[in-house]
Amino acid sequence: MGLLDGRRALVFGVANDHSIAWGIAQALHEAGATVGFSSVESLLDRRVRPLAESIGSTFIEPCDVQSDDQIRAVFAKWRTAHGPDGQVDILVHALAFARREDLEGSFVDTSREGFALALDVSAYSLVAVVREARRAGLLHPGSSVLTLTYYGAEKVVSNYNVMGVAKAALEASVRYLAADLGPEGVRVNAISAGPVRTLAAAGIAGFKKMYGAFADLAPLRQNISIEDVGRTALYLASDLSSAVTGATIYVDGGFNIMGVPSADA
Ligand code: NAD
Ligand code: 0WE
Fold first, then answer.
1. Could you tell me the distance, in angstroms and rounded to a whole number, from the CA of residue 84 to the centre of ligand 1?
2. CA separation (Å) from 116 to 60, 111, 124, 155, 200?
């Protein structure tokens, strides 16, 4: 008996086996859920399909979240694949994007276009995806929506820059969506994860140093894994969190509670 037997999940944002979305998908699958995937077209055949098939998934559809048409198409295909009773019990949004040039240097130099792009892909897309799932009649009492955020939404993290602003908008969107959808029994929450070496972290200036410093300062003195994120996602996706909505839960070894590091750390 798994916690999620008979439940259906749709996961946006798998790029490869290091992706946080993949850690979540595996945890949901291990708990008994059937997991469908949506990622950008270019990753689908070479990267996503083999991973999806390894956990018995058959729903694998492309979607660039900047396109309302593509978002609509994913849910239309979901309806075709699962029939009138095939609702989305768990919707996972684990994607973000900003121009590389906006993740180095000073935030004050962010262009209008760079700001709009980061906010569109990394924050607005949650609203768009939830709206379309709901419009298609796929959300129901008990459905759980999850997204991924980062501490840079709350405090200044060097180089995170416009992504910090996008994550602040994402966290606020989680609260407003939770208020809108709560009366329908739909919950919306965020996981604020510590740094993980994913594709999205590759080549970030100073990431390696920050990753090490994180483990030195976090109370649990370790970096976090995608399996750690997966276990909290399982809690938020399941009825274990039946009265939790609009929350941002930290999976960061306690990093966020620390103020001034001790002199001998
Ligand atoms: P990842 O590179 O594995 O995943 C990012 C995904 O975003 C990729 O699959 C990419 O294709 C997708 N994406 C980008 N633009 C898109 C678009 N226009 N349409 C559809 N998909 C698009 O990296 P990850 O670290 O697993 O990132 C997943 C989430 O976790 C992101 O929201 C990220 O901000 C968040 N997060 C990451 C860390 C970390 O340190 N890696 C920490 C906290 C939160
Ligand atoms: O949210 C993120 C990363 C999101 C991201 C990553 C990239 C790299 C490649 C968004 N857009 C892009 N665009 C690219 O071209 N994280 C939480 C990981 C991360 O990124 C940082 C971090 C951390 C942590 C950037 C600067 C400082 C710290």
1. 31
2. 28, 9, 10, 21, 19
Tell me if 252 sits within 8 A of 211, measured CB to CB: no
| DSSP classification of residue 46 | I
The HSE-up count of residue 241 (CA atoms within 13 Å, CB side) is: 25
Q: For ligand 2, atom 10, which residue shows the shortest CA distance?
A: 97
Above pLDDT 90, what percent of the chain? 93
204, 248, 252, 255: residue to mutate for ligand 2 pocket, most atoms within 8 A of CB: 204
Nearest ligand to the CA of 199 is 1
Domains and CATH numbers, the chain: 8-250 (3.40.50.720)
- The verdict on whether 235 is a catalytic residue reads no
Burial 80-103 (b: 16+ CB within 10 A, else e): eebeeebbbbbbbbbbbbbeeebb
176 given a catalytic annotation = no
In the numeric block, which tokens belong to residue 150?
């980062």
Coil, strand, or helix at residue 40?
Answer: coil
Spans of the chain, pLDDT less than 70 = 264-265
Question: Quick one: 71 exposed, middle or buried, by C-beta within 10 A (0-12, 13-18, 19+)?
Answer: buried
Which residues' Cβ are closer than 6 Å to ligand 1?
Answer: 13-15, 19-21, 39-40, 43, 63-66, 94-97, 121, 148-150, 193, 195-196, 198-201
Provide the whole-model pTM: 0.98
Compute the distance between CA of residue 166 and CA of residue 226 in angstroms, rounded to an integer: 22
Q: Report the 10 Å Cβ neighbour count for 252.
A: 23
CA distances from 169 to 114, 155, 172, 176, 210 (A): 15, 14, 5, 10, 24
